[in-house]
Amino acid sequence: xxxxxxxxxxxxxxxxxxxxxxxxxxxxxxxxxxxxxxxxxxxxxxxxxxxxxxxxxxxxxxxxxxxxxxxxxxxxxxxxxxxxxxxxxxxxxxxxx
Length: 97
What we know:
The protein is an all-alpha fold.
């Protein structure tokens, strides 16, 4: 309830946390649409982990190009897991410098 109120007020951390709750159905009904919505909102708010998780979601949904875009943005924000994903993609020839 508090996450929802904070998310409605634009708190990116709350939006990211809500996305995770909706992804796994923890305390709420599992809902991929709400998960993606909250990840997008948190990403717009500059939350690096949300941006990374949005990349994972896009990749899992078959949109590699969109996923890489999110990983690049998250990496620029200093999100370490995104950097690792991009390094692996570079090694596999999926991205260039």
